[in-house]
Amino acid sequence: MTRWWHRWFRTPAELREMGVVGINMRNARYVLPSNPRKLYDLVDNKVRTKSLAVERGISVPETYGVVTNPGDVRNFERMLEGRESFVIKPTRGSGGKGVLVIAGREDGMYLKPSGAQLSVGDVRNHLQNILAGLHSLGGKRDTALIEYKVAPEKTMTSISFQGAPDIRVVLFHGYPVLAMLRASTRESDGRSNLHQGALGIGVDIRSGKTVHAVHHGRAVKMHPDLKVPLVGVTVPEWERILEIAVQCYEMTGLGYLGVDLMIDENRGPLMIEVNARPGLAIQLANGVGLLKRLEPITERRAKHPGETPAERLLFSKNRFAPIQEG
Q1: In this predicted model, what pLDDT tens digit does every residue of 254-295 receive, in sequence order?
Q2: DSSP single-letter state for residue 230
Q3: Residue 132 neighbours by CB distance under 10 Å
């Protein structure tokens, strides 16, 4: 039978058999019981998340400044101290909304990774929109975080168009269950948002090798712009990436979470953010239904409560065999 991600329509019975988790099941069975509401602000506020990470020795991009009011907007360039590349993001944004990546400056203009030019006024307008809540959760007034732009490791840039790919690891009670890369394309304008045309590339938990890739929900083997293979690429420093992801579980106490990371050429893996409601496209990127990974964890915790981080990592690697493409 043709694999489930190669067909646009499946019956509910087929989806259940394949272990596909929908948003209602995710929320009712995993997010709500595992993520106490009081803990959400630990991850919904990026400034607070970074502060907690620094306290625990988790590597994160350097913060250049936090824009909180119109005066900060007018004077944002003072926060940059002559730096030409940086990232602006809403403190309470989600799904990559409102993220602005500046790769450099030329003739007084700011340059996006695509080469598009922005004036100082354009950047100020973007900051004002963030403060007004245009990109925040619930549309509430927000603040803007200005931080270090990751210098992506070369293996990662080889499969991403003009933008550094990020890595998402989904964990359940501290056990890594699925991972993927989100690599940019010409269509996604250097961003790693799958809904804007980025690639979702599944990564094997055990080896850190890419095993499957999708573009707009369809399986692909090659990058649509770079024409390079997407399967069989080994993600550098995979062990460290998994360790950081598990540390984020310990840091937040959230039972069901997604951890986003990037690999810097000089600084290694950096934690970018933590998500208490990670999306479900990771199933498509891997060709694996989440239920196939979540149910074994539930059984494991019942039999072996209180496992250490190292024991949880070992279980995930041994239990979740490499995905075979085909």
Answers
A1: 999 999 999 999 999 999 999 999 999 999 999 999 999 999
A2: -
A3: 13
The model's pLDDT over 153-198, given as tens digits with 9 standing for 90+, comes to: 999 999 999 878 899 999 999 999 999 999 999 998 777 888 889 9
pTM, rounded to two decimals: 0.91
* Residue extents of the structural domains in the chain: 4-43+153-319, 62-147
Q: What is the 3-state secondary structure (H, E, C) of 61-80?
A: CCEEEEECCHHHHHCHHHHH
The torsion angles phi and psi of 100, rounded to 5 degrees, stand at -120, 120
State the CATH architecture for 62-147.
2-Layer Sandwich (3.30)
- Which one, of 145, 316, 157, 146, lies nearest residue 242 by Cα? 316
Total count of residues recorded for the chain: 326
CA distance 189 to 171: 29
The fold of 4-43+153-319 is D-amino Acid Aminotransferase; Chain A, domain 1 (3.30.470)
Both tokens assigned to 76: 């944002």
- Residues facing residue 56 across a β-bridge: none
For residue 166, give the amino acid letter.
D
The torsion angles phi and psi of 74, rounded to 5 degrees, stand at -65, -35
